[in-house]
């Protein structure tokens, strides 16, 4: 895990150490730069594999044909190493970086589908005068890029592009609306007009002029046909693929451990990790787990968040693993400037604070790698919106006027409690088309409800660009026979997981110098879940049916029978406290109006409506605070 940056074009080489300095937290163990003519590459290193100087980057292949900067891990690097050695390649060290640079020197972009790992890298092909930039197919590792009049520049984090001459950091109105309604900017969008994300499984190639050609090597999600499995066969296959994924991702030359919430996903990963390490008490001791104790004054359960710690302790005792507990004080949640700076984006989700708190404790314990249960819900169907989708069989066939009546009947329900919020959200778009209804499950707030809080210019942008348009375009690209559930899982993986969960987890973990791995996103495991029929993912209204069945008798029943809860902190109460006071102060001072994006009076009206339980605006209102912070810190506005 590292930080990379670089350019192709008319830039000064002095730009490289400046970019490294901004991303120094991503690589506290080493740093390096390489520049030749119109090309420059920069790297900061968090050493995980081959801790010797042989792993220093930028790295050149043995014949000097390719120069590489690499962030991530190639889990199958040993198998790929054997392939190279059979071809007569004499490798100098033990790093996966050296394996990758030698593969690129021989096969170029052709080798990308062979890589099992999490990565973002840039390779300069010396003889061809060509730059290749790419990112793993799941989108675990971030990569931002910009095209200016001088050429192309890229970096692991958007903040490193702030020092690039000519970069356009004006707020992108489409992205700003997306942060307020989705919590993230989907696809290529970022908060800065002149900066784009490289899509998961995407690549950019360009010559010395810096003119990019964008493409993709990632496999498409979901085919029309699924495979017939007996339950017994599916359970055996599930255990095989999950266990294999965890074993692959235990490769490390430094201490590792795992997140442990006491939920099905993190407990499953912990079980297979301990088993792979030997399954005895000594093995369990080598897999320390990390959980979170929320601030005792926060109303966790009334806002849909469970108390993880009792379950984490149960699992830790069951497996024999050490358990370290991170504590979160309420005051920490008020530092939104720190949150936005770490995330690069105005992401209004307190769960990012939780990830950072856990990773900070892990690093204090000398652990540099954590395995996460992220992706389990997105592959096996574990979110509440998947359950909501299942209820459509009872009312989705109704004529449109009747479905509109359901919307009208449930809309007045109070948003002050979880049941009212969920019922209102379930039927909010009942009268819409099937595709729009499916995309709407990802919205935290409708554009129309948010509009009065926005400036006239941003409201006009809303008329041209709806938040769900990017999601609808992605759905339209799927084969026509893909089931409704798999369509939703496709949106989960393509946007909610890649653009939100993985993004904030990477940024907050790397702010502590910790690498996070995600076994559930192993390519073979992903391909297996795509072949499963819906009934093995969702059985009635029970989510993750197959994963639960596979782990029955393996992990505690209390974990398997536990209701799905959110990860993070209660937010709605804070809108009546510190966040609300800050919003009112920003509105009263004229600061919100001065951004050119908001109307202070409209924001206060939305805050008041939220307090009365008329709307559920907690996350969008936190988004207003985060956008204001981003404008100050990144755009200088």
Folded structure, characterized:
The protein has 28 helices and 17 strands. The protein is of the alpha+beta class. Among the domains are: 194 residues, Aminohydrolase, N-terminal nucleophile (Ntn) domain (Glutamine Phosphoribosylpyrophosphate, subunit 1, domain 1, 4-Layer Sandwich), CATH 3.60.20.10; 224 residues, Rossmann fold. The strands form 3 sheets. It has a 6-stranded antiparallel β-sheet, with helices on one face. A hairpin with a 5-residue loop joins strand 4 and strand 5. Helix 25 packs antiparallel against helix 27.
The fold-level CATH name of the domain at 231-380 and 487-560 is Rossmann fold
Low-pLDDT regions: none
The fraction of residues in strands falls at 5-15%
What characteristic shape results from the CA principal axes?
Answer: globular
Helical fraction: 40-55%
Discrete helix count: 28
For this structure, what is the CATH homologous superfamily of the domain at 231-380 and 487-560? HUPs
Radius of gyration: 24 Å
CATH architecture of the domain at 231-380 and 487-560, please?
A: 3-Layer(aba) Sandwich
What structural category characterises the helix and strand content?
alpha+beta
The CATH class assignment of the domain at 231-380 and 487-560 is Alpha Beta
Largest sheet: 6 strands, antiparallel
Mean pLDDT: 92
Distance between the termini: 33 Å
The total beta strand count reads 17
Strand order of the largest sheet: 2-3-1-9-8-10
């Amino acid at each position: 895990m590292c930080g990379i940056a670089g350019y192709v074009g008319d830039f000064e080489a002095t730009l490289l150490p400046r970019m490294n300095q901004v991303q120094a937290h991503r690589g506290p163990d080493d740093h390096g730069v390489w520049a030749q003519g119109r090309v420059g590459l920069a790297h900061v290193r968090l050493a995980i594999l081959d801790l010797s100087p042989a792993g220093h980057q930028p790295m050149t292949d043995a014949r000097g044909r390719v120069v590489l900067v690499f962030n991530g891990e190639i889990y199958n690097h040993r198998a790929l190493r054997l392939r190279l050695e059979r071809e007569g390649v004499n490798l100098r060290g033990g790093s996966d970086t050296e394996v990758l640079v030698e593969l690129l020197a021989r096969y170029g972009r052709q080798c990308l589908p062979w890589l099992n790992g999490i990565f973002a890298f840039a390779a300069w092909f010396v003889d061809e005068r060509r730059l290749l930039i790419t990112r793993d197919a799941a989108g675990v590792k971030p990569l931002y890029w910009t095209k200016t009049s001088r050429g192309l520049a890229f970096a692991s984090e958007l903040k490193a592009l702030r020092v690039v001459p000519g970069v356009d950091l004006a707020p992108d109105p489409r992205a700003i609306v997306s942060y307020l309604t989705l919590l993230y900017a989907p696809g290529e969008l970022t908060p800065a007009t002149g900066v784009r994300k490289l899509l998961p499984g995407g690549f950019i190639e360009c010559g010395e002029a810096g003119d990019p050609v964008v493409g993709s090597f990632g496999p498409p999600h979901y085919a029309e046909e699924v495979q017939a499995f007996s339950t017994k066969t599916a359970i055996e296959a599930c255990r095989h693929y999950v266990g294999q994924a965890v074993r692959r991702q235990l490769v490390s030359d430094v201490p590792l451990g795992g997140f442990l919430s006491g939920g099905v996903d993190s407990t499953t990963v912990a079980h297979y990790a301990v088993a792979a390490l030997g399954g005895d008490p000594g093995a369990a001791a080598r897999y320390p787990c990390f959980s979170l104790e929320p601030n005792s004054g926060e109303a966790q359960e009334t806002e849909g968040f469970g108390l993880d710690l009792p379950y984490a302790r149960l699992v830790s005792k069951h497996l024999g693993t050490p358990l370290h507990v991170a504590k979160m004080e309420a005051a920490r949640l008020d530092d939104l400037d720190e949150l936005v700076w770490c995330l690069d984006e105005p992401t209004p989700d307190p769960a990012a604070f939780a990830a950072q708190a856990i990773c900070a404790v892990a690093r204090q314990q000398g652990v540099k790698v954590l395995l996460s249960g992220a992706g389990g819900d997105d592959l096996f169907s574990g979110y509440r919106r998947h359950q909501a989708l299942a209820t459509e069989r009872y009312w989705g066939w109704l004529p449109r006027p009747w479905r509109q009546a359901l919307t009208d009947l449930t809309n007045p329900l109070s948003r002050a409690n979880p049941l009212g919020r969920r019922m209102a959200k379930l039927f909010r778009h009942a009268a819409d088309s099937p595709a729009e209804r499916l995309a709407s499950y990802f919205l935290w707030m409708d554009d129309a409800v948010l509009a009065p809080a926005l400036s006239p210019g941003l409201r006009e942008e809303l008329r041209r660009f709806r938040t769900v348009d990017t999601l609808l375009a992605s759905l339209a690209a799927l084969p026509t026979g893909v089931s409704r559930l798999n369509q939703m899982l496709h949106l989960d993986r393509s946007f909610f997981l890649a653009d939100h969960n993985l993004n904030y987890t990477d940024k907050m973990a790397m702010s502590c110098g910790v690498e996070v791995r995600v076994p559930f996103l192993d390519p073979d495991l992903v391909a297996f879940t795509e072949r499963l029929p819906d009934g093995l993912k969702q059985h009635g209204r029970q989510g993750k049916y197959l994963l639960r069945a596979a782990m029955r008798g393996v992990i505690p029943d209390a974990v398997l029978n536990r209701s799905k809860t959110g990860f993070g902190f209660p937010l709605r109460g804070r809108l009546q406290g510190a966040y609300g006071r800050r919003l009112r102060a920003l509105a009263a001072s004229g600061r919100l109006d001065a951004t050119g994006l908001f109307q202070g009076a409209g924001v206060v009206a939305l805050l008041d409506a939220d307090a009365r339980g008329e709307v559920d605006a907690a996350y969008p209102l936190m988004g207003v605070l985060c956008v204001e912070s981003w404008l100050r810190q990144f755009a200088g506005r």
